[in-house]
Write a sequence for this structure.
């Protein structure tokens, strides 16, 4: 038997074995992964600050302030290089925090069009609660924080995607609103003329860059349009993003807010995450 024939037969045998293994994996598809929303943590897409990660605030080598990271998988992405995401759902919320913020979740969450406590903005740009919804006086220092939740599909270099929520607050509200403006200004051409496509019809690039003012340095997020799933005919990604959006809208998937190190406003503008 020639060497070429032996090699060909070996490669054919290996291919056959690999195919059989794949078929076995397919037969067991979904086994052991049937879970409800209470069993799954939706990853949060965060920006590294102070080179500290997680509840224990551990330093991480090989990464830099301003990098993005998935807080569930601890996958890191260079902020200067940017990440690509498909925005699927946007939610505006007001979170109620104690005067001294620890690692506990927020006390309450309010919808923008629902009843909320009365607040007064202090010199640190905090919206301090002065009166409860029922009219009772409040003087314990609790405050409201406007938070924009962007539920996204994070596009990975290997063709895979990750579901995540990127929350933007305090000085991060300005780029959040700019992102919403980009989304709302998209126009596509249909058989009945131009129309506004779904939020999840386009890919956007998120980058961070350093800013400095009054002795403070911070990472500012910049959002730009990357590509159109419609023009690129990416039906696969469009369907995946639509399914994620429907699950969030139906309440099947939600983000759990957690206590974090408080980020002060560095100025009266909005758009930044201090290091």
């Amino acid at each position: 038997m020639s060497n070429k024939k032996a090699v060909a037969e070996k490669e054919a045998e290996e291919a056959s074995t690999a195919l059989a293994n794949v078929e076995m994996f397919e037969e067991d598809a979904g086994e052991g992964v049937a879970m409800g929303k209470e069993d799954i943590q939706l990853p949060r897409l965060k920006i590294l600050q102070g080179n500290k990660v997680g509840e224990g605030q551990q330093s991480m080598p090989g990464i830099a302030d301003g990098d993005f990271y998935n807080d569930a998988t601890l996958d890191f992405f260079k902020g200067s290089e940017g990440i690509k995401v498909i925005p699927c759902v946007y939610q505006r919320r007001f979170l109620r925090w104690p005067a001294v913020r620890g690692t506990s979740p927020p006390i309450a969450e309010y919808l923008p069009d629902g009843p909320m406590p009365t607040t007064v903005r202090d010199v640190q740009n905090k919206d301090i609660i002065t009166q409860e919804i029922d009219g009772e006086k409040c003087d314990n220092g609790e405050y409201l924080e406007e938070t924009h939740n962007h539920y996204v599909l994070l596009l990975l270099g290997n063709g895979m995607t990750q579901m995540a929520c990127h929350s933007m607050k305090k000085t991060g509200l300005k780029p959040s609103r700019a992102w919403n403006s980009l989304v709302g200004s998209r126009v596509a051409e249909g058989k009945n003329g131009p129309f506004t496509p779904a939020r999840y019809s386009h890919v956007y690039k998120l980058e961070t860059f350093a800013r400095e003012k009054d002795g403070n340095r911070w990472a500012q997020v910049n959002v730009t349009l990357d590509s159109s799933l419609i023009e690129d005919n990416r039906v696969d990604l469009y369907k995946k993003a639509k399914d994620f959006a429907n699950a969030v809208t139906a309440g099947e998937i939600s983000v759990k807010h957690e206590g974090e190190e408080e980020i002060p406003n560095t100025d009266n503008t909005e758009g930044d995450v201090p290091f």
